[in-house]
Amino acid sequence: METVLIKNLGDHVGQQVTIQGWLYNRRSSGKIQFLIVRDGSGLVQGVMVKKEVAPELYEAAQTLTQESALKLTGLVRAEERALGGFEMQVTGVEVIAIAEEYPITHKEHGVDFLAERRHLWIRTPRQVAILRIRSEIEHALREFFYQHDFVLADAPIITPAACEGTTNLFELDYHGDKGYLSQSGQLYNEATALALGRIYCFGPTFRAEKSKTRRHLLEFWMIEAEMAYFDVDDNMKLQEEMVCFVIQRVLHKCANELRTLGRDVAKLEAVKLPFPRISYTEAVEILKQAGEEFVWGDDFGAPHETIISNHFNAPVFVHRYPTAIKAFYMKPDPQDPTVVLGADLLAPEGYGEIIGGGQRIDDLNLLKQRIAEHKLPEDAFEWYLDLRRYGSVPHSGFGLGLERTVAWLCGLDHIRETIPFPRMLHKMYP
Ligand code: 4AD
Ligand code: MG
């Protein structure tokens, strides 16, 4: 008997197959039992008619509790009204493990209750759909870079210095020396880009965020690219192509998952190239027209980003932010040094900034000056300064926050559902 995944049952109509999974739900009318089984790839209903199977088999099935592990054998039938369009006429059940009383029932549960049981919560169809989409997004990103001749160059997780400011660093004891969990692989990416041309890294990044929001995690995954000889415009062009590639892939590969989530896919289908580009100064005008009291020079908060992005039906690049609110490594605009050649990508529908990036300072003296202005320890950055001493070139890069992208594409209210085990303020269990 062939063992198959539930998601592939459509390839086996009219055949006897086995599926391996867990009991999601059971309904019974005395003469007939419906066993709804999940295997991580989907759900299927197994139909067992009492008079068609051996009495022991029918009774064994009746002992199955929610989340009991089982193997189900039966004939695959197309059934329009069934979940996923197929059902199984059960001819065999192998009980692997009877589950104890399962805490997450089919009733509504509060989010705190579920978060405490995240290790079980991830079994529910909605969470499975999100995690499958997350996986597809990661694959698509990697494939995009592979197709564009990028080299995967992993950046270190333990670092001797800050990349994104010192206020949210996680410090650790590195055998007597101070070390930090990486906030971003960027500085190392700049080194590998000068070695390899076009590179990306994809790994966990850490920020000791002190506020609770629906967009911030303390540990999140970032895919970061860095390209030698790219300016700020080349950088934005690559990003928009990447984002469109990922959306197309998710629409194509994850239609069932998007349906499970009730995602309005028309909003994703509407995302087309090129994305609008506005300067920070133009964004401030949009805020003022919307009646916000916003002062040029301040950083955008989440509500501001929402107002700006609601102005467009597509993701929008905001470039040329005030120098004072951006990181030390951003290259000033030669036309107007009060702003930098950085650009963030704001997602539509109020999902906020999903990408931060820009062109880097390539001049040694200016970079030294910025390191001093930001009160960063110059000795920890000597190696980084070397990149400007030996063959410095214009170069640019960016980092896309995976979880915010998952939240947007899945249409989720909160970032906590976008990663198997979220790390949030005062929340580390499980
Ligand atoms: O804008 P950020 O801070 O940019 C950097 O770290 C650059 N060094 C990247 C680069 O140019 N290589 O962070 C990039 C993205 C944000 O746009 C956001 O999507 C995500 O990372 N991000 C977070 N996601 C979840 N939780 C947090 N606390 C996040 N902080 C940033
Ligand atoms: Mg940013």
TrEMBL record:
Keywords: Aminoacyl-tRNA synthetase, ATP-binding, Cytoplasm, Ligase, Nucleotide-binding, Protein biosynthesis. GO terms for molecular function: asparagine-tRNA ligase activity; ATP binding; catalytic activity, acting on a protein; nucleic acid binding; transferase activity. Gene3D superfamilies: Bira Bifunctional Protein, Domain 2 (3.30.930.10), Nucleic acid-binding proteins (2.40.50.140). InterPro entries: Aa-tRNA-synt_II, aa-tRNA-synth_II, aa-tRNA-synth_II/BPL/LPL, Asn-tRNA-ligase, Asp/Asn-tRNA-synth_IIb, NA-bd_OB-fold, NA-bd_OB_tRNA. Its EC number is 6.1.1.22. It catalyses: tRNA(Asn) + L-asparagine + ATP = L-asparaginyl-tRNA(Asn) + AMP + diphosphate + H(+). It is found in: Cytoplasm. Signal peptide: none annotated. It holds the Pfam family tRNA-synt_2. It comes from the Bacteria. One of its GO terms (biological process) is asparaginyl-tRNA aminoacylation. Residues 131-430 form the Aminoacyl-transfer RNA synthetases class-II family profile domain. One of its GO terms (cellular component) is cytoplasm. Homodimer. Belongs to the class-II aminoacyl-tRNA synthetase family. PANTHER family: ASPARAGINE--TRNA LIGASE, MITOCHONDRIAL-RELATED, ASPARTYL/LYSYL-TRNA SYNTHETASE. This is Asparagine--tRNA ligase. It comes from Anaerospora hongkongensis. The gene is asnS.
